[in-house]
Design a protein that fits this description.
Helices cover about 20% and strands about 50% of the residues. By secondary structure, the protein is α+β, with helices and mostly antiparallel strands. The chain has two domains: about 130 residues, Double Stranded RNA Binding Domain (2-Layer Sandwich), CATH 3.30.160; about 160 residues, Porin, CATH 2.40.160. The chain has an eight-stranded antiparallel beta barrel with strand order 6-7-8-9-10-11-12-13. Strands 2-1-3-4-5 form a five-stranded mixed sheet. A hairpin with a 7-residue loop joins β12 and β13. α2 crosses α3. The longest helix is centred in the middle third of the chain and has 17 residues. The chain is elongated.
């Protein structure tokens, strides 16, 4: 009974790694001449970085084969990639890294070498010079291409600051999304809420400004830094509530909608990572808005030109 249960569990668990129905790319990773603990950890992390199914059996014609051979001071890396027909080699040094960091460093080096090969599936899917050996099946090639292709949706949580035409600063945050229509073009949408308590000689003004925006953008740059420029519009609502500083003055409430064009420059570091930082500079103009009149002090202007700064974390 116990033996039969064990066999049944093994049959259920077997498809979890490299099963025929698995749509992830297949990789085999051999780490030779290294400490066993380092080898196991490097294989595990590399498979996660590549979002690949790790094959422990003899690799077939759809499996990208990765070999790391440890020497005294260096590690020799070799990739045989049937999805592109390429083979790549590289030598890395681990001796200068802390012992606890060597497994991750080796795993990242392995993943980078594989991605360098798979990137041809996106940049040059139909090379004019044929490979010397038969390529992997279209399904295997597509599975590898999806790893390096830009994901169509990016979500971000951001901290936000806006400076109004009156010089007042509001702080807040919100959510942002980017939908990629191609490798370069994207649509950006966000929803923000900003708040400030503004001191004036006659009292304090509480300002609340929720807003939303939509824009069309284009991205540039490399694998580690990606500038993005977008042009669109932002609209919102402004609530101004005054609290009198003495019995000699009175507080009033003013509110209204505002909106106008917006130009944004985003700087995204390591944009292909699952989670990556995002820094955004923006500027716009309130084509219509709200003017908070302050007796004996500077008016609050949700009109005219404004600037903004956002810092957040994005997930793709």
């Amino acid at each position: 009974m116990t033996r039969a249960l064990g066999v049944a569990l093994a049959l259920v668990a077997a498809p979890a790694i490299g099963s025929p129905g698995d749509e992830r790319p297949r990789v085999s990773i051999s780490v030779l001449g290294c400490e066993p603990a380092l080898a196991r950890e490097a294989r595990r992390i590399a498979a996660i970085e590549l979002r690949a199914a790790l094959i422990d059996t003899t690799p077939d014609e759809t499996t990208t084969q990765i070999t790391a051979t440890c020497a005294a001071q260096t590690v020799n890396l070799r990739v045989i990639d049937p999805t592109t027909g390429k083979s790549l080699e590289r030598t890395v040094a681990l001796s200068q890294a802390a012992p606890t960091a060597r497994a991750r460093l080796l795993a990242l080096a392995l993943a980078e070498l594989v991605v360098a090969s798979w990137s041809e599936l996106e940049s040059n899917p139909e090379p004019k010079a044929p490979a010397s050996a038969p390529l992997a099946s279209p399904a295997a090639r597509e599975a590898a291409r999806r790893v390096i292709a830009p994901r169509p949706l990016e979500l971000a949580a951001v901290f936000d600051a806006h400076r109004l035409a009156s010089g007042d600063l509001t702080l807040g945050g919100g959510a942002r999304s980017a939908i990629w229509t191609s490798s370069r073009l994207f649509l950006r949408f966000d929803a923000l809420a900003d708040y400030a308590e503004l001191a004036r000689p006659t009292g304090t003004i509480a300002l609340t400004m929720p807003s939303f925006s939509g824009a069309l953008g284009v991205s540039f740059g490399s694998d580690w830094l990606q500038p993005r420029v977008s042009l669109g519009a932002r609209a919102g609502y402004a609530w101004l509530s005054g609290a009198a500083g003495s019995t000699a003055t009175t507080g009033e409430r003013q509110r209204g909608v505002w909106g106008g064009p917006e130009l944004a420059l985003d700087l995204c570091a390591w944009p292909h990572a699952r989670v990556h930082p995002l820094l955004s500079f923006s500027a716009g103009a309130h084509m219509f808005g709200v003017r908070g009149t302050v007796a004996g002090g500077r008016d609050v202007l949700a009109t005219g030109v404004w600037t903004g700064l956002s810092l957040g974390a994005a997930v793709r």
